[in-house]
Design goal:
The chain is built from 14 helices and 12 strands. By secondary structure, the protein is of the alpha/beta class. The chain has 2 domains: 97 residues, Winged helix-like DNA-binding domain superfamily/Winged helix DNA-binding domain (Arc Repressor Mutant, subunit A), CATH 1.10.10; 166 residues, Vaccinia Virus protein VP39 (Rossmann fold), CATH 3.40.50.150. It has a 7-stranded mixed beta sheet with strand order 6-5-4-7-8-12-11, sandwiched between helices. Strands 1-3-2 form a 3-stranded antiparallel beta sheet. Strand 4, helix 10 and strand 5 form a beta-alpha-beta unit. It is globular. Bound molecules: S-adenosylmethionine (SAM).
Length: 339
Amino acid sequence: MMREPIAEIAALFDVYQSGLVFHCLCAVTRLGVPDQLGEEPRPVTEVAAAVGADADALRRVLRLLAGHHLVDFDPGTDAVTLTPRGVLLRGDHPLSLAATFATLGVSDVAHRTTDALRTGRAAAPVALGEDFWSFLAARPQRQAVFSQAMAEQARLLSLPCVDLVDWPTEGVVVDLGGGTGALLAAVLNTAPKLRGVLVDQPQVLDRSRAAVAERGLADRCEVRAGDLFGPAPAGDVYVLSRVLHDWDDEAVVRILAAAATNAPADARLVIFEDVLPEDGSATAAQAWADIAMMLLYEGARERTAEQYRVLLDRGGWQLLETVPGPPGMHVIDATRRPA
Ligand SMILES: C[S@@+](CC[C@H](N)C(=O)[O-])C[C@H]1O[C@@H](n2cnc3c(N)ncnc32)[C@H](O)[C@@H]1O
């Protein structure tokens, strides 16, 4: 008789169950449950009342999350506290990942993966009824959480790469799709004479202006509403951080060409993106990111250095080098391609 492959069955059930853990974690973070918790035990009924949740449903979800070391839950006293892992989902933690879990994203569209597999198209329009960016633009609260999620991820991915780049000591750095400006602020802090222009969609910019002012950079950084596909402002260095992987190849070429419109012949372009191995392989995290892009945005994908080289060339730029950063991030350095 065939022996049951117990370990494989257990591994499959881990995968089967982890999807629901992810959804529960996103849901409690969206409701702001971690913000109601800390080291002091708090009754679930009180937390449920504070966030507008059903106490029984919340208790059962917290019991699941306790099994994954996100909260400690004492059924005897009905009291719950945050673990050192769960505390990272409080919005006020300096290393918070709350917005990353709360934002509109994979958790809202992954249930349409079968459609994406059949059609090769993004799942977001099927799941949301419109494309991802339009959905966000029409919902200011969700847009704000998305922008905050991007800032959290920039802190982990792009900011550690700032020191890998040889920034000029003066001139203008233009950050296209710069979001809340955390990256551009870090770049401007490398040299006091450097000035910046942050370009993004108008609905993002209130937060960007506030963030730039908070960092004392208002006089050195212009925050400008603009379209990635329209001519970019004149500058000496252009930055595209985690923007190009949101778009299909043709859109990437248009974005790169738009960036080049007013760029001098010696302008540089610094791209912050992960770079896939050339042999078609990917780490588990890279494969995850690639599928997330596939589901969220039409034609979006992670790319190899060679794929970026070809797109850069088509968009009027020449790839100089790619430099690895922390896991999940590279710096791609480019300059204007000679005509
Ligand atoms: C994935 S986020 C990256 C944000 C930031 N660069 C970072 O590294 O955290 C993509 C950014 O592109 C902006 N964006 C999307 N479509 C745009 C468009 N058509 N014109 C200008 N910005 C756009 C979004 O608002 C968002 O801030």
